[in-house]
Amino acid sequence: MQIVSYNVNGIRAAMSKGLLNWMEKRNADVYCFQETKAEQSQVDTKVFELLGYNHYWFSAQKKGYSGVAIFTKLKPDHVEYGFGDAALDHEGRIIRADFGDTSIISVYIPSGSSGDERQAYKMKWLDSFYTYIDNLKKEKPNLIICGDYNICHQAIDIHDPVGNKNSSGFLPEEREWLSYFLENGFIDSFRRFNKEPHNYSWWTFRQNSRARNKGWRIDYCMVHEPIGHKLKASGIHADVVHSDHCPVWVEI
Length: 252
What we know:
Blueprint: E1 2-7, H1 11-16, H2 19-26, E2 30-34, H3 46-50, E3 54-58, E4 68-72, E5 78-81, H4 86-89, E6 94-99, E7 102-108, H5 116-139, E8 142-148, H6 172-183, E9 186-188, H7 189-193, E10 219-224, E11 233-236, E12 248-251
Parallel strand pairs: 1-2, 7-8
Antiparallel strand pairs: 1-12, 2-4, 3-4, 5-6, 6-7, 8-10, 9-10, 11-12
Protein backbone atom coordinates (compact mmCIF):
# COMPACT_ATOMS: atom_id res chain seq x y z
CA MET A 1 0.00 0.00 0.00
CA GLN A 2 1.30 3.42 -0.98
CA ILE A 3 0.02 6.40 0.99
CA VAL A 4 0.64 10.00 -0.06
CA SER A 5 0.10 12.98 2.24
CA TYR A 6 -0.22 16.44 0.71
CA ASN A 7 -1.13 19.87 2.04
CA VAL A 8 -2.60 21.20 -1.20
CA ASN A 9 -3.17 24.79 0.04
CA GLY A 10 -6.61 24.79 -1.58
CA ILE A 11 -7.68 21.74 -3.53
CA ARG A 12 -9.42 23.79 -6.23
CA ALA A 13 -6.26 25.83 -6.79
CA ALA A 14 -4.16 22.66 -6.90
CA MET A 15 -6.55 21.10 -9.42
CA SER A 16 -6.08 24.14 -11.66
CA LYS A 17 -2.31 23.49 -11.53
CA GLY A 18 -2.48 19.87 -12.64
CA LEU A 19 -3.17 17.94 -9.43
CA LEU A 20 -5.41 15.39 -11.20
CA ASN A 21 -2.85 14.50 -13.85
CA TRP A 22 -0.20 14.08 -11.18
CA MET A 23 -2.49 11.87 -9.06
CA GLU A 24 -3.21 9.68 -12.06
CA LYS A 25 0.49 9.22 -12.79
CA ARG A 26 1.44 8.75 -9.13
CA ASN A 27 -1.36 6.21 -8.72
CA ALA A 28 -1.18 5.98 -4.92
CA ASP A 29 -3.61 3.73 -3.07
CA VAL A 30 -4.49 6.47 -0.57
CA TYR A 31 -4.14 10.26 -0.64
CA CYS A 32 -4.37 12.17 2.63
CA PHE A 33 -5.04 15.83 1.85
CA GLN A 34 -4.83 18.82 4.16
CA GLU A 35 -5.88 22.45 3.81
CA THR A 36 -8.49 21.61 1.20
CA LYS A 37 -10.19 25.00 1.75
CA ALA A 38 -13.43 23.74 0.23
CA GLU A 39 -16.68 21.96 0.90
CA GLN A 40 -17.15 18.75 -1.04
CA SER A 41 -20.07 20.37 -2.88
CA GLN A 42 -17.72 23.06 -4.25
CA VAL A 43 -15.53 20.53 -6.09
CA ASP A 44 -16.22 18.40 -9.15
CA THR A 45 -15.65 15.10 -7.38
CA LYS A 46 -16.59 12.99 -10.40
CA VAL A 47 -13.11 13.55 -11.83
CA PHE A 48 -11.61 11.82 -8.79
CA GLU A 49 -14.14 9.01 -9.01
CA LEU A 50 -13.13 8.45 -12.64
CA LEU A 51 -9.60 7.84 -11.35
CA GLY A 52 -11.03 5.15 -9.06
CA TYR A 53 -11.07 7.00 -5.74
CA ASN A 54 -13.62 6.97 -2.97
CA HIS A 55 -13.40 10.33 -1.22
CA TYR A 56 -14.22 11.53 2.28
CA TRP A 57 -14.12 15.17 3.38
CA PHE A 58 -14.11 16.95 6.72
CA SER A 59 -14.29 20.67 6.12
CA ALA A 60 -14.05 23.65 8.43
CA GLN A 61 -17.19 25.56 9.35
CA LYS A 62 -15.44 28.71 8.13
CA LYS A 63 -15.63 28.86 4.34
CA GLY A 64 -12.36 28.57 2.43
CA TYR A 65 -10.36 27.57 5.49
CA SER A 66 -8.48 24.48 6.69
CA GLY A 67 -10.16 21.12 5.93
CA VAL A 68 -8.89 17.55 5.47
CA ALA A 69 -9.80 14.65 3.20
CA ILE A 70 -8.94 11.05 2.42
CA PHE A 71 -9.12 9.71 -1.14
CA THR A 72 -8.74 5.95 -1.41
CA LYS A 73 -9.05 3.20 -4.02
CA LEU A 74 -9.97 0.69 -1.33
CA LYS A 75 -13.29 1.50 0.31
CA PRO A 76 -12.91 1.87 4.08
CA ASP A 77 -14.91 -0.16 6.58
CA HIS A 78 -15.52 3.00 8.56
CA VAL A 79 -14.71 6.72 8.41
CA GLU A 80 -14.47 8.86 11.53
CA TYR A 81 -14.85 12.62 11.17
CA GLY A 82 -13.08 14.74 13.78
CA PHE A 83 -12.48 14.14 17.46
CA GLY A 84 -16.16 14.10 18.34
CA ASP A 85 -15.64 17.37 20.25
CA ALA A 86 -17.32 20.47 18.78
CA ALA A 87 -14.78 22.75 20.44
CA LEU A 88 -12.00 21.11 18.42
CA ASP A 89 -13.80 20.02 15.28
CA HIS A 90 -15.09 23.32 13.89
CA GLU A 91 -11.81 23.84 11.99
CA GLY A 92 -11.94 20.45 10.21
CA ARG A 93 -8.51 19.11 11.10
CA ILE A 94 -8.70 15.32 11.44
CA ILE A 95 -10.32 12.44 9.56
CA ARG A 96 -9.72 8.70 9.97
CA ALA A 97 -10.39 5.77 7.64
CA ASP A 98 -10.35 2.17 8.91
CA PHE A 99 -9.33 -0.66 6.58
CA GLY A 100 -9.64 -3.97 8.42
CA ASP A 101 -7.06 -3.86 11.19
CA THR A 102 -5.26 -0.79 9.75
CA SER A 103 -6.33 2.83 10.26
CA ILE A 104 -5.10 5.88 8.34
CA ILE A 105 -5.48 9.44 9.61
CA SER A 106 -5.16 12.69 7.68
CA VAL A 107 -4.38 15.49 10.12
CA TYR A 108 -3.77 19.23 9.79
CA ILE A 109 -2.27 20.55 13.02
CA PRO A 110 -2.86 24.29 13.57
CA SER A 111 -0.20 26.88 12.87
CA GLY A 112 0.71 29.37 15.57
CA SER A 113 2.54 31.78 13.30
CA SER A 114 -0.16 34.47 13.31
CA GLY A 115 0.31 35.39 16.97
CA ASP A 116 0.23 34.43 20.62
CA GLU A 117 -3.47 33.55 20.66
CA ARG A 118 -3.13 31.00 17.85
CA GLN A 119 0.09 29.64 19.34
CA ALA A 120 -1.73 29.00 22.61
CA TYR A 121 -4.55 27.33 20.68
CA LYS A 122 -2.01 25.19 18.85
CA MET A 123 -0.46 23.93 22.09
CA LYS A 124 -3.89 23.17 23.54
CA TRP A 125 -4.84 21.37 20.33
CA LEU A 126 -1.64 19.30 20.46
CA ASP A 127 -2.45 18.17 24.01
CA SER A 128 -5.93 17.08 22.93
CA PHE A 129 -4.55 15.34 19.84
CA TYR A 130 -2.00 13.45 21.92
CA THR A 131 -4.69 12.21 24.30
CA TYR A 132 -6.93 11.20 21.39
CA ILE A 133 -4.14 9.23 19.68
CA ASP A 134 -2.95 7.70 22.96
CA ASN A 135 -6.42 6.26 23.51
CA LEU A 136 -6.99 5.34 19.86
CA LYS A 137 -3.76 3.35 19.48
CA LYS A 138 -4.93 0.95 22.20
CA GLU A 139 -8.03 0.18 20.16
CA LYS A 140 -6.37 0.41 16.72
CA PRO A 141 -2.65 -0.31 17.05
CA ASN A 142 -2.03 -0.52 13.30
CA LEU A 143 -2.15 3.23 12.93
CA ILE A 144 -0.68 5.55 10.28
CA ILE A 145 -0.96 9.30 10.87
CA CYS A 146 -0.17 11.43 7.83
CA GLY A 147 -0.36 15.16 7.53
CA ASP A 148 0.91 18.66 8.09
CA TYR A 149 2.15 18.74 11.68
CA ASN A 150 3.36 22.36 11.44
CA ILE A 151 6.44 21.39 13.50
CA CYS A 152 10.05 20.81 12.47
CA HIS A 153 11.43 18.18 14.80
CA GLN A 154 15.21 18.55 14.58
CA ALA A 155 17.72 21.13 13.35
CA ILE A 156 18.24 18.92 10.29
CA ASP A 157 14.58 19.51 9.35
CA ILE A 158 14.85 23.28 8.86
CA HIS A 159 17.14 25.38 6.66
CA ASP A 160 18.03 27.91 9.39
CA PRO A 161 17.65 26.44 12.88
CA VAL A 162 19.45 29.34 14.58
CA GLY A 163 17.50 32.10 12.87
CA ASN A 164 14.19 30.31 13.48
CA LYS A 165 14.74 29.28 17.09
CA ASN A 166 11.93 31.61 18.20
CA SER A 167 9.62 30.88 15.27
CA SER A 168 6.34 29.02 15.62
CA GLY A 169 6.89 25.58 14.18
CA PHE A 170 10.37 25.30 15.66
CA LEU A 171 9.79 26.41 19.24
CA PRO A 172 11.35 24.24 21.98
CA GLU A 173 7.95 23.29 23.42
CA GLU A 174 6.67 22.18 19.99
CA ARG A 175 9.77 20.12 19.27
CA GLU A 176 9.55 18.61 22.75
CA TRP A 177 5.94 17.64 22.09
CA LEU A 178 6.93 15.90 18.85
CA SER A 179 9.78 14.08 20.59
CA TYR A 180 7.37 12.88 23.25
CA PHE A 181 4.90 11.77 20.57
CA LEU A 182 7.59 9.71 18.82
CA GLU A 183 8.95 8.26 22.06
CA ASN A 184 5.49 6.99 22.85
CA GLY A 185 5.33 4.60 19.97
CA PHE A 186 5.58 6.32 16.59
CA ILE A 187 8.12 6.19 13.76
CA ASP A 188 8.98 9.15 11.54
CA SER A 189 8.93 7.02 8.40
CA PHE A 190 11.04 9.39 6.31
CA ARG A 191 13.88 9.39 8.84
CA ARG A 192 13.74 5.59 9.01
CA PHE A 193 15.11 5.57 5.44
CA ASN A 194 16.80 8.96 4.98
CA LYS A 195 19.20 10.64 7.41
CA GLU A 196 20.37 13.37 5.02
CA PRO A 197 19.87 17.13 5.53
CA HIS A 198 18.22 19.58 3.11
CA ASN A 199 15.02 17.54 2.74
CA TYR A 200 12.00 19.78 3.19
CA SER A 201 8.25 19.71 2.52
CA TRP A 202 7.27 23.40 2.81
CA TRP A 203 8.75 26.65 1.54
CA THR A 204 7.46 30.16 2.05
CA PHE A 205 6.39 31.92 -1.14
CA ARG A 206 8.69 34.81 -0.17
CA GLN A 207 12.32 35.42 -1.20
CA ASN A 208 12.41 32.71 -3.86
CA SER A 209 12.71 30.21 -1.01
CA ARG A 210 11.73 27.10 -2.90
CA ALA A 211 14.21 27.61 -5.72
CA ARG A 212 16.90 28.17 -3.07
CA ASN A 213 15.64 25.19 -1.02
CA LYS A 214 15.22 27.31 2.10
CA GLY A 215 12.52 25.10 3.55
CA TRP A 216 11.03 23.28 6.52
CA ARG A 217 10.11 19.61 6.89
CA ILE A 218 6.76 19.83 8.63
CA ASP A 219 4.80 17.10 6.80
CA TYR A 220 5.10 13.55 8.10
CA CYS A 221 3.86 10.00 7.65
CA MET A 222 4.00 8.66 11.20
CA VAL A 223 3.68 4.90 11.67
CA HIS A 224 2.82 3.19 14.95
CA GLU A 225 5.53 0.77 16.03
CA PRO A 226 3.37 -2.41 15.90
CA ILE A 227 3.45 -2.15 12.09
CA GLY A 228 6.95 -0.67 11.86
CA HIS A 229 8.25 -3.96 10.51
CA LYS A 230 5.97 -3.51 7.47
CA LEU A 231 7.62 -0.26 6.38
CA LYS A 232 9.11 -0.62 2.90
CA ALA A 233 9.96 2.94 1.84
CA SER A 234 9.23 6.60 2.48
CA GLY A 235 10.07 9.81 0.68
CA ILE A 236 9.38 13.39 -0.32
CA HIS A 237 8.25 14.56 -3.79
CA ALA A 238 10.07 17.90 -3.65
CA ASP A 239 9.62 18.47 -7.38
CA VAL A 240 5.79 18.54 -7.20
CA VAL A 241 4.62 22.15 -7.20
CA HIS A 242 0.83 22.50 -6.92
CA SER A 243 1.21 24.09 -3.46
CA ASP A 244 3.69 25.77 -1.10
CA HIS A 245 4.01 22.25 0.36
CA CYS A 246 5.01 19.13 -1.53
CA PRO A 247 3.72 15.58 -1.11
CA VAL A 248 5.31 13.11 1.29
CA TRP A 249 4.71 9.36 1.10
CA VAL A 250 5.10 6.01 2.78
CA GLU A 251 4.85 2.45 1.51
CA ILE A 252 3.85 -0.42 3.77
